[in-house]
Amino acid sequence: MVRERVSRRQRLIEVGMDLFCKRTYEEISIDDIAEAADISKGLLYYYFPTKHDFYAAVVQHAAEQLLHATEAASAERLEPLERLRAGLDAYFAYAEGHAQAYVTLMRSGVGADARVAAIIDAARQTQVQRVLEGAAREKPLTALHHIAISGWIGFVEAACIAWLEQRNVAREQLSDLAMTAFITLWESIPG
What is the pLDDT of residue 109? Predict the structure, then answer.
């Protein structure tokens, strides 16, 4: 019984991923979600008391998927910059595969909703820590390094949004740009 509940809840989250990849939060109603999942609204409310609870669960799932994809790509036994490039490639591939949801999430998660912003920030901090851990082998880290990587992650997110909206450069060019920005920033930090 518990396994069935987890499975059904997971299936609902997957339906949400599909819906939010195509339309924004505001465009989707509880009726739309229930219809897409082929369940009653009552059953949807059993798993998620509000539409916002449902959305937060979908955002959490998306953040976990993104972190998993970037971790798997960068976990190979590669040199630090090669691992960073593999992680970037996985990040951009994930964002491209979930373009509407990614753009909506990154724009709506900033300040508008504390719960969603916390999920996004936790994923962002995980990315920052991964980059710092990979870079720590090169030289001792300072507070300035942490600030620089946090800022670089913000650059990657903003560049990704612009790329998804404009689609005027290849994904490889975007990765090249992000790598160049990282190397330039990293080399400019004393120490």
Answer: 53
